[in-house]
Amino acid sequence: MGTQVRPRDHPSGRSQAHAVRELRVTSGSPEVSAAEIERVFREERGRAVAVLVRLLGDIDLAEEAVQDAFAEAVQRWPSAGLPPSPAGWIITTARNRSIDRLRREASRKDRYAQAALLHAHDDAPSEEGPVCDDRLRLIFTCCHPALAPHSRVALTLRLLGGLTTAEIAHAFLVPESTMAQRLVRAKGKIRDARIPYRVPDESDLPDRLRGVLSVVYLIFNEGYAASSGDRLVREDLCAEAIRLGRLLAELMPDEPEVLGLLALMLLTESRRAARTTPDGALVRLADQDRERWDRALIAEGQEIVRACLRRDRPGPYQIQAAINAVHSDAATAAATDWSQILRLYDHLYALTPTPIVALNRAVAVAEVEGPEAALSRVDALASDLDRHHLFHAVRADLLRRLGRSAEAVMAYEAALDRTQNAAERDFLRRRRADLDSARESDPRNGDARTT
Predict the structure, then answer these.
(1) How far apart are CA 229 and CA 5, in angstroms?
(2) CB count in 10 Å sphere of residue 368
(3) Total domain count, the chain
(4) What are the DUF6596 domain coordinates in residue numbering (predicted)?
(5) Which of 62, 227, 233, 438 could bridge across to 53 with cysteines, CB 3.0–4.6 Å?
(6) Distances, alpha carbon 371 to alpha carbons 193, 356, 394, in Å
């Protein structure tokens, strides 16, 4: 996740990122660079929104207030310098802006009551409860049972992950317009049902855990392979997901799926340095320099997997972690135990029979039974995954391995049409060019997404 978080449009019609880009042009020698302001935005937006939602009890007002605060930062910080606590400055400024907005927009009778309520928070003690981290608390709050499961996850990704509607739609394999409607409905449900923004009781946590884990997983997924932008990885989202995963593990150490998700993220993150070349080009798992894998993260992730095995309460995240543990065990790509990986995918598909699991299982089938057996399984997923570029990328590779070059070129073209990530597009172009010039290298290829 190396690209910057793309914030929502500001009420003025300009995004905050656009305002920062303007700063590069209009400021001569700023004391605070545009890159520094962008970094603060990426790192602090989720926390600021979480705090303001708790304070204001209104999602739209919180987002707009934080957006206004960053717009003010763009104007002030280049000449005034970075404040001692940028996060505190953003939260305080956003809070003050929200009070101003309420005063302007509310009736005379209500506005003083609303402003007084906000001011009362100054002297109120911090809300007590089992979840102390504001961002994790907002995740649990948004995963309220009154909301549809997909809406809970999508809304939290929007608020805390900083993901755009298009990125969230990509994660759910639905059109952007469909996702936009879900987000509007989720916000309306919270408003109309007067769902409270409070720390969930400890007894509420297990019932909300599934949605919370989905949110953290999808934040990491967008970081691991960004759906758009110039770079394959968005490190900021990977780091935030792992931070939340560690908090969850501390909060709920007896939940195996919490530990499984943390192990999955750690083992996947261990390969990050080897997944791209110095110039940002994607490197397949089979071609990665395994000396560059982070052995400390691998050791930590594998130890968690072993602890999960001892509990003998398998779940989807634990099985995915075990699959990644098998990959991390192999000193070379050729030494990978694909038979074990296929057995794990069989177990995973029995628990979660989704098209994406079936696609990744087909990659393992190709390694164990051959590309022809895998291709028939992949083709059966066309109606579910036609919009997903990875479906076409996997299919193209299987066709290439079967010597059906013309069909493989068409599949690569379909994959190119469906991805907005520059690193993935460059990789797919190289694979297509290899076919065009008949200069193929390694005929074996794993999951097009397993990098």
Answers:
(1) 10
(2) 14
(3) 4
(4) 208-307
(5) 62
(6) 52, 18, 10
